Fold this protein.
Amino acid sequence: MKIKKSKGRIVFEVVNYSILAFLAILCIIPFLHLLAVSFSADEFTSKGEVFLIPQGFTMQAYEYLAQKKEFFTALGISVMRTVLGTAISLIVIVMTAYPLSKTDGRFKGRTGFTWFFLITMFLGGGLFATYFLYKQLGLLNNFLVYILPGACDVWFVLMMMNFFRGIPKEIEEAALMDGAGQFTVLFKIYIPLALPSIATIVLFTAIGQWNSWFDGIMFMNDPSKYPLQSYLYTMIVSSDPTKQSGFTLTPEQLEALKNIGGKNLQAAQIFLGILPIALVFPFLQRFFVKGITVGSVKG
């Protein structure tokens, strides 16, 4: 049976959808502008005449990037840190949250461990202490500096812990009575039930890894080990395109760069930099609301 909508409901939906459509357009316009600039000739971009439609259509910036080894090296490092960092973080978070979700009677010292993790959310040693610690651990100029320091996100641990605590204890007790061990309970019962929260953790961890740039600038002495975002940062802040990211350009690259505007090249690299994560996000974002809701703190 079709329910007839009231006039107030119709007005609300029209206004609501209009506002959402307007906000969606505002979010898309910067990407379209970036794409238009990357495909435009320098004579138009240098004068600020490009908005959403390419002027003097050219693919020189992308042809130049196809021959630029350091760009794809940085891209590969970002892909590697995103995949490995997300996988390791997920393992650490789940393995930490599972025992913390138990009661004090089943896991002695659980409250103390929980407070230990909570304190790290509010207190830190500062940049100097962090740099010195990484130096002592041998993480400077080491790929592991991208992965290990942030492997255990306490906020995600708390979210996963609260989700695990919401699973009926009777399910676990029945499995234990049938002879299942804790790892069996975790991997065959808890994790399948926690897929929405896991998808949320994967989404935000992957985005955080992909967008991270400061650790590359701060803890890497060799520009060839920069992730993509660190590489793009040094490129954007550099006033001389021939010295971007600390790399020395070949004579062929210098010659090709003469015909490409700095804005065009920057736009092309930034667009390619955000494209991979932008393609992945729509497939995982549908889990976001459900994952946050089921993992929220319960009263």
